[in-house]
Structures are given as C-alpha cells and as structure tokens.
Amino acid sequence: MEPEMVAFLKRVGKSLTIAFCWLAITATAAIKGDNAFIGDHVNIGNILFYLWLIISIVILIIIFRKIWFAKA
Fold it and tell me: 0.90 exceeded by the pTM?
C-alpha cells in the first residue's frame, strides 16, 4: 500500500478512536451520572458536566486539527 494511504488511514483510525472514547466518557457522565438532565433546579453536577462538555469539545477540536493539519 502507498505510504500516503497508510498515513491517511492512521489519521482516520486515530480520529475515530479519540472521538468514540470522548463520546463514551461524555455519554456515561451524562446519563449514568444523571448530570445532563436538569430537574427542578440546576445543581453542581449539571454545571460541572456542561463545563466539561464545552472544554472537552474545544480540546477535541484542537486535537483533531493537530492530527489533520500537522506538517509531516
């Protein structure tokens, strides 16, 4: 297989692995911890979850940019 194709497939694999791990962590924290659902009032768990969500999405975008736009 060509080296460019191998490098491309490695980037795809890394991106999918990171995205699925992030999704599993976020979904577990949201549903299992009951933090994504706001009941009668907002509690500290909701605030921490949504803060984690925003910060982790920014970090995820930075990681993806480094993977896909890094100069080899």
Answer: no
